[in-house]
Amino acid sequence: MTISHNGALACPDPTPQERLLVTVAVQGAEYACSALTVEDLVEMTDPAHVIRADVIRDLLLGRHGELDPRGVRVSGARIVDRLDLDHVTAAAGVELLGCVITEPITVE
Q1: 4 falls in which pLDDT band (50, 70, 90)?
Q2: pTM
Q3: Domain boundaries, the chain
Q4: Where are the beta strands (DSSP E) in the chain?
């Protein structure tokens, strides 16, 4: 995982799914990554349903432009890597519905 402290993107090469998440989040809509159940997402290895945690962090830090006040809303995704929200001050929140989070979320 790459953490940038100078305002650069932590994930400079987003996947097609991550690019779509960015577009949808900036517009204020929910990104429905899949209709899979949590049980299916636990076992799933298909990259089409994977979002890297750093992309969510970058969104909350405004590194993809101004975020809609409704925040980052994702459903049916497998969130990989640690979601590091330590010392993040965001103008909007994050909502992960029916998602599998493979590593801890840290918030200080």
Answers
A1: very low
A2: 0.89
A3: 32-106
A4: 30-32, 50-52, 72-75, 78-80, 83-84, 94-97, 100-101, 105-106
